[in-house]
Amino acid sequence: MTLRPILIHPDPRLKKPCEPVTEITDEIRAAADDMLETMYDAPGVGLAAPQIGLLKRLFVMDCVKDPETKPRPMVLMNPEIIWASDDRKIYEEGCLSIPEQYAEVTRPSEVKVRWLGLDGALHEDHFVGLWATCAQHEMDHLDGKLFIDYLSPLKRQLITRKMEKLKRDRARG
Ligand code: NI
């Protein structure tokens, strides 16, 4: 497994709709493994393929935060929300492509998701709490949408400027 560099906003690859996974190739398996390792290393609870520059409908997540609980690494391809609760919840979200910036986003508090697993089978699960927020945040990435797109233009611009500065500082070393 290899750690992959995580793209930082603003980057045109983070704004593009991704293509469905049509075949579970060795490249896809390797990307999923690398994405899990990269996510745990960051550390984060979710990572979408476009964040490593792979424009495929694929994301990984593990929202188990309690160190006493067994990890639950999940790989979801071509995910679809098949049901969302009317009940909504506000979470303070962040993103590995927008480091150290957090903002409140309102989303359905529960969702049912169907996806293709690495085993080639379709899976379904009902997500609540952080899992539901994370799944929706990651699925947005596959449509080229970031959590800052839910904020006011002013707040979004402020965060984008900070990220542009961060990228300039990193480029200078
Ligand atoms: Ni994100």
Keywords for this entry:
173 residues; alpha+beta; Peptide Deformylase; five-stranded antiparallel beta sheet; two-stranded antiparallel ribbon; 3 helices; 29% strand; binds nickel (II) ion
Give the secondary structure arrangement, pairings included.
Elements: H1 26-41, E1 46-48, E2 58-61, E3 74-84, E4 88-95, E5 98-108, E6 110-116, E7 122-128, H2 129-142, H3 153-172
This protein binds nickel (II) ion (NI).
Structure write-up:
The protein has 173 residues and is α+β, with helices and mostly antiparallel strands. The protein has a single domain, classed as Peptide deformylase (Peptide Deformylase, Alpha-Beta Complex). A five-stranded antiparallel sheet has the order 1-2-3-6-7. Strands 4-5 form a two-stranded antiparallel ribbon. A hairpin with a 5-residue loop joins strand 6 and strand 7. It is globular, with a radius of gyration of 16 Å. It starts with 25 loop residues before the first helix and ends with a helix. Bound molecules: nickel (II) ion. The site of nickel (II) ion (NI) has 5 residues, from helix 2.
